[in-house]
Amino acid sequence: MTKPAARQPLRRNARSNRARILATARRELGRNPDITLEELARASGVVRRTLFGHFPGREALLEALAEEASEALRSALTAGARPDEPAERALAHFVFLMWPVGDRYRMLLALARRDLGIERVAEILAPARHEVTAILERGQRDGVFPTHLPPAVLSAGLEAMTVALLEAVNTGDLGDEGAPVALAVLVAAGVREDTARLVVEDVASAVAAPEAPRAE
Q1: How many CB atoms lie within 10 A of CB 48?
Q2: What is the pLDDT at residue 2?
């Protein structure tokens, strides 16, 4: 009778420890990609045995972070789909929703090629690339985006640019707000800068609007 009640707090404690380790890893790996697991355990406030019980090695820890990033990306895509909006607005909205996810996990960029591998990173980013490709296809059909490049190629180019912008945040050369990135993506997709600015301002207001009632 008492055993199930005794186990439940341990399960909750284990989940709490795992979440704290991952949150600490996101922060500390951004500061020092070469941090050891022993140093990470101390920063997380857990003993070495606890950390290794959840993540037996660096690869397991990074894979857990990669899966966490993948889940966050899929959730944002599900919440942010705008199939009925004009393509340029849908693309700007996409950037505003994706940028916080990328900003949160941008430390993975410093580790991707060395530890995760190009194929794993591509797998994580695939849903976002497919969504952008679909938006670009729709925009090209509607005459919003030029057709000088196939949608899939243009999507890959925009992805590479966005990754470069995230790396610029890592180095401190760019702030972490999404509006400049959304503007850059629209212009790179072929939207005139003046038009792109208006779209980004409008979408930024729409994204921020749900927060207004709580501020009153």
Answers
A1: 12
A2: 45
